[in-house]
Amino acid sequence: MASYKIHVQQKEKVVQSVAAALRTAVTVTLRHEEHKLPAEITLLLTDDDQLKTLNKEYRGVDAPTDVLSFASGETMPGMSEPYLGDIVISVPTAERQAKQGGHSLKAELQLLTVHGTLHLLGYDHEEPDEKDHMWWAQASILAQLGAEITGPPEETEEEPACPSKKGQKFT
Questions:
Q1: How far apart are alpha carbons 49 and 53 in whole angstroms?
Q2: Distance separating alpha carbons of residues 162 and 111, to the nearest angstrom
Q3: Helix 128-145 crosses helix 105-120 at what angle (to 10 degrees)?
Q4: Are strands 82-90 and 67-75 parallel, antiparallel or unpaired?
Q5: Over the range 13-40, which residues count as b (16 or more CB within 10 Å of their CB) and which as e?
Q6: CA of 35: how far to CAs of 7, 75, 87, 159, 162, in Å?
Q7: At what angle do helices 16-32 and 128-145 cross, to 10 degrees?
């Protein structure tokens, strides 16, 4: 039977119930966006050092970030399902953002997971109309999940913290 396959790899460990909630967040996002079955995604929970390295390599920004998405959109060798790509999240950054926002780590990770999945599906937030569309979808999905928060805090004038790189594969 066709399904969504979500692989959660944990360099930075979270409790099993949070990992399960993140799988659910990916699935609900794909269903919300009516993405066809089957599909496969990898979610990597890691540290600031790895996000900093990836951010520098793919974006030229020598600083850690909260989430990066690497879209594939093809069937990878050895995989049976179309591979949408990878979402890489810094757990320490998510912990800091949760504390600063006054909500749980689970809520922050759900937000970042939905956000990263939307990037894999082609969403972006560079232009105001794109941002409005992405933030609406994100809020709708997080509300459907019953998440503690439904969006990021208002952004400052700094560079966005969550880019995606179409066609880049993280391994």
A1: 6
A2: 11
A3: 130
A4: antiparallel
A5: ebeeebbebbbebbbbbbebeebeeebb
A6: 17, 15, 17, 29, 22
A7: 120
Q: How many residues does the chain have?
A: 171
Give the angle 22-27-30 at the CA atoms, nearest 5°. 125
Token pair for 161: 């913290």
pLDDT tens-digit profile of 10-39?
999 999 999 999 999 999 999 999 998 889
C-alpha span between 35 and 57 (Å, rounded): 30
CA–CA distance, 118 with 125 (Å, rounded to integer): 10
122: left (phi over 0), alpha (psi -120 to 50) or beta: left
Q: Which pTM value belongs to this model?
A: 0.87
